[in-house]
């Protein structure tokens, strides 16, 4: 009875090693050993589950090789594995694999449905007016409007360039020799004006020599200079440049004071005009005589303001007044408040 009593109150929990020693006698093969060890571990797990459901003590897992799946933070410290209740899944709702954050997700989703949770940041929150998205049709419409404006501007430019003007001038070689008047267009270059003035000089026979006509016929455009007031205008500029930019020369006066607007358009055929009327209008326009040069813009200007000068004469006399005050045109220079000086740096104290 003493042995039975002693075995009754003795702890029934045996370690894995003790159980293997009891069930294994002598040398066994490695496969048999592994099989018996698996059976022992399975038996221990089964006893642990039965003890957990019955409320009895569980085997001391500190002596076994199996991990404690029940957790080590039990409130009683008795080693009893608490049974963890599974949460009941709601139909039609997918639960996440982590239970601790599941409740927070459910609360947040419910709050979002009720409208109580708002996003912390909004796109372009600091912008008062959010621009509308540009569609392809809007881009095409803007491109068409820009093209229409461009064409209108080009038409105005061409109309201004085609406008005729009159330029009275003199030949200057220390004294003014009347040269008459030349019909020009605002889009013509300076060298075109010099070429026409050269022909006028050959026709008038400007000069004291008997062969002045031949000398003017032989002179080249590069040998001539256009001096507007006291500014030498280079050959490659056109009059349209000075008209549109309203270029100011010395004394605050415009170098070429012509209008930058196109004249009224003559009568032209429109879409409602038939072919016969269109031909009549075109024929009438082609046969119309040129307007009198004296009625053109600029015909009443002072001819001494526009000087045609032989460059060779200028190179010989550029140190003598008034050639010493001439200067080549610089589009970046402000001539309004300029203090006029000669080539020696001497300031002129008379009127600008």
UniProtKB/TrEMBL annotation:
GO terms for biological process: chromatin organization. InterPro entries: FAM50A/XAP5_C, XAP5. Residues 70-81 have a biased composition (Low complexity). One of its GO terms (cellular component) is nucleus. Residues 98-109 have a biased composition (Acidic residues). It holds the Pfam family XAP5. Residues 1-116 are annotated as: Disordered. It comes from the Eukaryota. Residues 1-14, 54-69 have a biased composition (Polar residues). This is XAP5 domain-containing protein. It comes from Purpureocillium lilacinum.
């Amino acid at each position: 009875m003493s042995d039975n009593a002693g075995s009754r109150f003795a702890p029934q929990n045996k370690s894995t090693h003790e159980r293997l020693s009891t069930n294994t006698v002598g040398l066994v093969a490695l496969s048999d050993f592994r099989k018996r060890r698996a059976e022992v571990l399975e038996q221990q797990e089964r006893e642990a589950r039965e003890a957990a459901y019955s409320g009895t003590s569980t085997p001391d897992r500190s002596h076994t090789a199996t991990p404690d799946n029940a957790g080590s933070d039990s409130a009683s410290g008795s080693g009893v594995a608490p049974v963890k209740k599974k949460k009941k899944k709601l139909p039609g709702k997918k639960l996440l694999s982590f239970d601790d954050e599941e409740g927070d997700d459910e609360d947040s989703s419910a709050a979002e449905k009720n409208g109580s949770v708002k996003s912390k940041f909004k796109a372009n929150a600091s912008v008062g007016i959010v621009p509308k998205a540009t569609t392809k049709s809007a881009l095409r419409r803007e491109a068409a409007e820009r093209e229409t404006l461009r064409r209108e501007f080009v038409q105005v430019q061409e109309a201004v360039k085609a406008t005729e003007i009159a330029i009275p001038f003199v030949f200057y070689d220390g004294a003014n020799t009347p040269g008459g008047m030349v019909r020009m267009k605002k889009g013509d270059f300076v060298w075109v004006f010099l070429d026409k003035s050269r022909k006028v000089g050959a026709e008038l026979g400007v000069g004291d020599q008997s062969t002045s006509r031949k000398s003017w016929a032989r002179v080249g455009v590069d040998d001539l200079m256009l001096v507007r007031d006291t500014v030498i205008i280079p050959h490659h500029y056109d009059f349209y440049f000075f008209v549109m930019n309203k270029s100011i020369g010395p004394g605050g006066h415009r170098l070429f004071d012509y209008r930058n607007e196109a004249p009224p358009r003559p009568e032209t055929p429109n879409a409602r005009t038939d072919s016969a009327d269109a031909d009549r209008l075109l024929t009438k326009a082609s046969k119309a005589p040129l307007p009198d040069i004296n009625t053109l813009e600029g015909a009443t200007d002072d001819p001494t303001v526009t000087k045609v000068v032989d460059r060779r004469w200028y190179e010989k006399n550029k140190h003598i007044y008034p050639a010493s005050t001439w200067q080549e045109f610089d589009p970046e220079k402000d001539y309004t408040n300029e203090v006029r000086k000669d080539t020696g740096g001497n300031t002129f104290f008379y009127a600008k």
